[in-house]
Design brief:
The chain is built from seven helices and five strands. By secondary structure, the protein is α+β, with helices and mostly antiparallel strands. Strand 4 and strand 5 form a beta hairpin.
């Protein structure tokens, strides 16, 4: 019996087992989608597959080159999870920062979000990894963004400051040198 009390199923194409998992937080059903892409494809079939891959949680991809009288084709077997529903134990309501912050603070918040977007792209990260919207809102409320003031915000620790502070600081303090945080 697999973990979480799921059931094991077999798929003939690969003769490998897969599990349907049912947990308290998420009912995840593993599914399989097959893509057949001709070797001389114009790119449309590849684009369809790439769009699908970006939109789903992919578990595994198998590929085989098939050649017959009709030509050569790449066959891709994609195993993915289709989430039927998801209930987070402590889901937070989405905050409309335009309503929560005054106009000047919201403008600063918007500028910080633009900087965060550029930093995330440059570092190859998701934007929320750099700073969450909540952290950016707190930064926007500050008159000057310094290392000391950043460390006073919940969720911003030495590692984030060390890695990202130089992108957001408005005025470095005299004893604050770029580099590792002491």
């Amino acid at each position: 019996m697999p973990p979480c009390g799921g059931k094991i199923f077999w798929k003939k194409w690969t003769d490998k087992p897969f599990t349907i998992i049912n947990t308290a937080y998420c009912l995840a059903l593993m599914q399989i989608k097959l893509f057949t892409i001709p070797v001389g494809d114009s790119g449309a079939a590849q684009q369809e597959m790439n769009s699908f891959l970006k939109a789903h949680k992919i578990l595994e991809i198998e590929q085989k080159l098939i050649s017959n009288d009709n030509g050569a084709f790449w066959c891709f077997c994609v195993r993915y999870i289709e989430q039927a529903f998801s209930v987070a134990p402590e889901s937070k309501a989405k905050v409309d920062y335009r309503k929560v912050l005054d106009e000047a603070t919201f403008q600063k918040f918007s500028n910080l979000r633009a900087i965060r977007k550029q930093v995330a792209a440059a570092e190859g990260l998701s934007a929320f990894i750099v700073f969450t919207d909540e952290e950016l809102a707190e930064l926007a409320k500050l008159e000057e963004i310094t290392i000391k003031s950043m460390l006073g915000i919940k969720g911003i620790g030495e590692k984030k400051v060390e890695r990202f502070a130089h992108y957001f600081m408005t005025k470095p303090e005299a004893d604050e040198a770029p580099g590792p945080v002491a």
